[in-house]
Design brief:
disordered N terminus; 27% helix
Length: 154
């Protein structure tokens, strides 16, 4: 695949995930109860594809699709993942067990992917803030923006 300013695709993914984790910690972690933003409803989140918000090329960002059937799918970096979820109007979120393909990648990228999937599996709150879907819990805070094909449909 392509490169980012001389950085290989996998190295760029690792930096993306580490920057995202550092941003969560710098923002004070994920303490406190999340609430949905004004006017945010589950209908604004469900049935859309979301991409991790960061400054790397789109193809390197983890993605998440929350289907209307209660199934969650996406790409965690190296591997595709799937599971079930529940998202409520009160801001609560629950991710069921997560399954994933088993393709190998460099150890650092695999570690970043494991951290992403761990944080997703521990998310218990959701909100929409400034157009971003934020999933938060004991594993950290994940921020997603609408995927490029979703942004063009808005």
């Amino acid at each position: 695949m392509g490169t980012v300013r001389g950085i290989g695709r996998r190295d760029g993914l690792m930096r993306l995930l580490l920057v995202g984790a550092a941003g969560c910690l710098a923002a004070g972690g994920c303490a406190g109860r999340a609430s949905t933003g004004p006017g945010a409803s589950p209908a604004e989140v469900i049935g859309r594809t979301w991409q991790m918000a960061a400054s790397t090329p789109d193809e390197q960002r983890p993605s998440l699709t929350l289907g209307a059937d209660g199934r969650a799918t996406g790409v965690a970096g190296v591997n595709r993942f799937f599971g079930t979820y529940a998202l409520e109007a009160d801001g609560s979120f629950e991710m069921g067990p997560i399954g994933a393909t088993k393709m190998a990648g460099p150890p650092a990228v695999q570690a970043a992917e494991d951290a992403f999937l761990g944080a997703l599996g521990q998310a218990d709150q959701w909100r929409v803030r400034r157009g971003l879907l934020v999933l938060a819990g004991k594993g950290g805070e994940l921020r997603f923006q609408p995927a490029p094909n979703e942004r063009s449909a808005e």
